[in-house]
Amino acid sequence: MKKITVLMLIFMLSVTLVPVGAFAGSTTPHPPKDPAGSWAEGPPPNRVDPAKPALLFVHGLNSSAEVWTKNNNDMLQRARDAGYQTATINLYDTNGTSQDMWDNGKLLADKIKVISNHFGKKLIVIAHSKGGVDTQTALVYNGAAPYVQRVITLSSPHHGSQLADLAYSSWAGWLADIVGSQNPGTSTLQTSYMKYFRTKTDALSNATTIPFFTFAGDNWSDGTASYILGGLYLSTFGKNDGVVAVDNAKLPGGRVVKIGSWDHAKVRTGSYVFSLIQPYLQANTPALNQETEALSASSLTASAVQSTYSEIDNSYFIRGGDYNGKASETLTVENGVKSIDLDWISDKRVSKLELTKPDGTSEIINLKAGYDDDIFAGAWHHNAVIQNPKPGTYKLNVTVPDQGAYLLIARYQAVQVPELKYNLNAVGPKLNLKPQDSPDSVTQVTYQVQYYGDPQQGVTSASKGLTVQQKTVNPTGQIELSKADKPGIYSVTYEISGTTEAGYPYRRTAVQSIYIDADGNKYVD
């Protein structure tokens, strides 16, 4: 498990985050004018070359066709200058509720045929984020392959995103009720469901009929606040662009072209990537270098590899709820904590936070904020860092002159807390827990299992999920999933508590997504 050093994190946060207000009036998205299924031809080249394919640009989660032109994105203009005809399309996300790959894939397949016939030639699809998953679904399951020459994906979550898992934790329901962050599109990007999707799709003979070329970003540190805070959360899972981990952007059977210093927005921006994409628009694609060939080969088996034990990260403490003018949360800090990164996600922007320390003194912390237009679209991220906190109980107070909801994510930079490992029993409804270090330091694990319906059947539950199980067990015990008796997505939220060797209490939260298919098979990342 890769860790980022505390000093580097603090440095990046100090030089890249911007104050509240800097995003006002510039990042809040406007409702798109065009409905789902609408598409538009881009600016035509000076001379149409019949030998060149037309390019279809597909947007990602909670987005629209406007993403290819707004915020000074010159992707279409660069494609035009290179002599390519272009088109953009709006999927169901443009209506305000992101849909899963099955609905988006069917819609996209129908329009791919229309757009290909319009240009009189095959298309090369360039897809950002979830648009890459939607595109593969259109090709493999909905008959669009004869109209497509190849596909280029830009930070597409081919193995899901752990941020989607977070959006379905038991603490996220209040915020989801208001900003709509739990929707069919986000639901199916949970890592467990995407593991099912990979298992189902990669086994099909036509899954590799159309060549896929993948790009991924690994630099979230100079992006917006939402990418920085998303990057902090995902850093536990490796390099990432603030929304999607690099490893999750690899496609079994696809070829990794480039892992570059981009965040999730830059990877779709023409000035950053079009020159790298352009060689793969030609009839004869260039050979990949030795490094990227090795990455491509590793992605072929990524979905099939699962170690005996997988780690549950103990870096986070998560809470959420609603508020009516004021919200408060309590942090327990053990010895050995170097810093705590706070991400206060709420439906409304706030400017400051009151921190009460163990000695009873209080201070006002100015927050740094940014608007989210990805997994938590419609919410505001607010960041603060508590440096070198002394052990004890800290209280956070936020005042907001209205009603609303929030989700708090506290990331501890600590060395004292042991990690748990789990083993998923594939033939029985149990999760075996095993502390990585001393089991004596973990007092108990309380888990809550919530059911969110089965995307395969088009069934979804309320945003807070249906709680099917809740229990406290010892750290070497088994988590029974006996109530998880029907197909669908289950979110398991763990509350871990214990004491360090020095006798200081600690509290942590971990989130895990599990999918059970119609045959009872279980999938977990």
From TrEMBL:
UniProt superkingdom: Bacteria
Is Hydrolase one of the keywords?
Answer: yes
Task: From the UniProt annotation, give the residues forming the signal peptide.
Answer: 1-24
**Occurrences of domain DUF7379 (ranges):** 55-166
Instruction: State whether keyword rRNA-binding applies.
Output: no
Annotated Pfam families: DUF7379
Question: Per UniProt, which keywords does this protein have?
Answer: Hydrolase, Signal
Under Gene Ontology molecular function, one entry of this record is:
hydrolase activity
Protein name as annotated: Alpha/beta fold hydrolase
